[in-house]
Design a protein that fits this description.
Elements (H helix, E strand, L loop, with lengths): L7 H14 L10 E6 L7 H11 L2 E6 L3 H10 L8 E6 L3 H6 L3 E2 L22 E5 L2 E6 H7 L19 E4 L5 H14 L4 H10 L3 E3 L2 H8 L11 E5 L2 H7 L10 E9 L2 E7 L5 H11 L2 H11 L2 E2 L8 H6 L11 H20 L1
Parallel strand pairs: 1-2, 1-3, 7-8, 7-9
Antiparallel strand pairs: 3-11, 4-11, 5-11, 5-12, 6-9, 6-10
Helix pairs in contact: 1-3, 6-7, 7-13
Length: 350
């Protein structure tokens, strides 16, 4: 499951480290293609080997920190990139990448299998690869034991039965936290979302820095050690809870509040100045192939965008694919993100 952090400090940290790496791009040898991505990227060995066998290219994967840090570093090396393809920019940060002239346009023929709702750039500077909705998750056993109905909507969290039950990630330091803040803006609008967060504060919402602390340490449904039975996580968290528990349970111990889900789409693009532009295009084509798309769910706990890709049985049984998730236009997010974060900090933290 991808756990990506974005923060105002990311740019500073990346700037300190980029001097070590910016002076050289990928190896100019046509025998390899370099994928620049975030630390959470994963692909199975046999799928990676299939690409290398079919293309005749060695795939080098260059991980550059979390998604925010990886994008910042890529922007600082725009035109003289460290690799050939960048994967991991999402709709919340897309306008920043496009405004930074990071990519060359490429329209993959494999886009014929992708629903147009995932194609965010009509100029095809980026290609959608996966989606993974951020949603409220809850601990089913906790609510059953306490004889309280689990929340069914964002509005429910402002009511008395849910005092002290919710843990969220700080949107200034966490991408799921940012997505949840954006979900509240999409639902309640410019004139209502601050009041919503004021109500959450009155209901003793707990704010922590990142997903790991929220889910692994504070959420009762993951390890059983936390005290908060509602957490901001992912639509794919319930199947992960089944797959990674020993012994494997018959039913997912957690569930998703579908009303709260905010769509995240991850995209890839050919980096401007890529040493192996042909290989970069082949890699993007492969990332949309049925083989790669069907590999992603159990590698990164995200959902494929290709229509011909089947979900693994655990996803079919336990995951929620929201029918109408909340979202906001990328250019609107880019124009208002910093102001919204300042307003959130004023309302919730100060």
């Amino acid at each position: 499951m991808t756990r990506r952090t974005t923060a105002a400090t990311v740019a500073v940290l990346a700037a300190l480290t980029v001097g070590v790496n910016a002076c050289g791009g990928s190896d100019e040898s046509p025998g390899k293609v370099v994928l620049v991505t975030h630390d959470a990227f994963a692909v199975s060995d046999d799928v990676k080997a299939a690409f290398e066998r079919e293309s005749g290219l060695k795939l080098q994967i260059l991980k550059s920190g979390d998604a925010g840090a990886a994008l910042t570093t890529a922007l600082l090396t725009a035109g003289n990139p460290q690799g050939d393809v960048f994967f991991g920019v999402d709709n919340n940060l897309l306008s920043r990448a496009l405004d930074g002239n990071l990519f060359d346009a490429y329209e993959s023929p494999a886009l014929a299998e992708v629903d147009e709702k995932y194609a965010l750039d009509p100029e095809h500077r980026v290609t959608p690869i996966d989606h993974g909705e951020v949603c409220l998750n809850y601990d089913k056993a906790w609510f059953a034991e306490h004889h309280i109905a689990p929340p069914r909507s964002l509005d429910d969290l402002t009511k008395a039965p849910y005092d002290g039950l919710l843990v969220v990630e700080d949107p200034t330091t966490s991408t799921p936290g940012l997505a949840f803040m954006l979900a509240t803006i999409a639902r309640y609008g410019e004139n209502g979302w601050q009041d919503y967060w004021q109500k959450l504060r009155e209901r003793d919402v707990l704010v922590v820095d990142g997903w790991e602390e929220a889910y692994d340490a504070r959420f009762s449904g993951s390890t059983g050690k936390g005290s908060r039975p509602i957490v901001v996580s992912y639509a794919s968290s319930p199947p992960a809870e089944v797959i990674y528990r020993t012994p494997r349970p018959e039913q997912a111990p957690t569930a998703v509040v579908e009303d709260s889900c905010f769509r995240q789409i991850e995209l890839a693009g050919v980096l401007r100045g890529a040493r192996n532009e042909r290989g970069a295009r082949e890699l993007i084509d492969f990332m949309l192939s049925k083989r790669f798309q069907e590999d992603m769910p159990l590698q990164m706990f995200v959902f494929p965008v290709a229509r011909n890709a089947a979900l693994p049985p655990a996803f079919e049984k336990y995951a929620v694919v929201p029918s109408d998730p909340l979202d906001l236009p990328p250019d609107e997010i880019e124009a208002s993100r910093e102001r919204w974060l300042d307003e959130w900090t004023r309302v919730v933290i100060r």
